[in-house]
Design a protein that fits this description.
By secondary structure, the protein is an all-alpha fold. It has four helices and no strands. Helix 1 packs antiparallel against helix 2 and helix 1 runs parallel beside helix 3.
Amino acid sequence: MMTGITIAKETRLFLLSLAVGAGMSFLYDLLRVLRRRTAHRAAAVSLEDILYFLLCALLHFAFVLKDNRGQLRGYILVGELLGWVCWHLSAGAVLVEAGSRLLGIVQRVVAGILRVLLFPLYGLYRLMRRISAALSKVLEKILKKVIQKGKYTLKRKRLMLYNLIGRFKRVNQKRGDCDGIEKETAE
């Protein structure tokens, strides 16, 4: 009875599992490069690690499902582990160092380009800040004067309602009117 499993197929699966392990290590090296160049809090590092391990689990599952019809073999796990460790100890260390330097250069170049592109906007922002500061000082002086004048307006002009009523009564009395009604004289 032939099961279809040959030494050539197992060797091929083992070599492929080495490549899958090296690919997983490469993904982790990319995370290491990002962690070197940017500040991370402990919670962010934990979340990144959880997402990395979930991605590795999905990659492992897809590899076993596609290439070995879902049958888990010990040599596949050993091959992935060996591939991960070999990449991490050899090319991974070099890649992390080179990637960190390259990412630093890219960050400086992008920052320089943004600085050049945004310089006119920064100048406009500084100009608008100066103008708004000058306007706020002028408006503050004007509003202080308006508030001070507003406190004494009624007293100086004597335009209160009871003053107006008294003024109308005096004018009408001089003319001879009483409460606005003219007296009729008998003829």
